[in-house]
Amino acid sequence: MNLLIVNASPRHHGNIDKMLQIIYDEAQKQGAQTRFLRTDSLQAEPCKGCMACRKSLKCVLPDDGAQQFLADIQWCDRIVIGAPCYWGNMPGHLKMLFDRIVYGMMGENEWGIPIPLHKGKKALIVSTCTTLWPLNLWFNQTKGVVKALHEILKYSGFKLIGTIQKAGTHRHKGLTARNIRQCRKKTRCLLR
User: Fold this and answer.
1) I want to staple 170 with a disulfide (CB 3.0 to 4.6 A). Which of 13, 29, 130, 192 is the partner?
2) Parallel, antiparallel, or unpaired: how do β-strands 2-7 and 78-84 relate?
3) pTM greater than 0.70 (yes/no)
4) Which helix (H) or strand (E) holds 56?
């Protein structure tokens, strides 16, 4: 089993980092081959929107971190994406990376209907926000991140097996025992 853990938080040692480390450790115990990728370490140009990649299956921009991101996604059987909430959505750098690799995530038929290129793979989404629970759901904070990532993953063929959403990080900075148990349990479900 090949597991890719994507950390889209630029905050080192924050809650996303801590939760993804628990997931990594649990995956190692379960025997998964695991890669850990920080999106803030990837240098990549923004998408130009030329749509040439849809026909050529290659981005017109020079090779950069976007191609590494895609290669890691193509390698994995399972993916965990950890992303904090920025204005009700995922961080811009992660969105930009997904924009750049759309040609490697989904194809389309002659009518423009998406064809998933990662069918049979599974995903787990981890998100945090400063908004208190349940307001994080009502005001589409972590819920907004999960919804956006779920759309990308769904059209790419990934089956979402669950989410971990930690709200109220402004007042409750650390992880609780419940958060830790949830990370371990969801990792085991992902690797089944």
Assistant:
1) 130
2) parallel
3) yes
4) helix 53-56
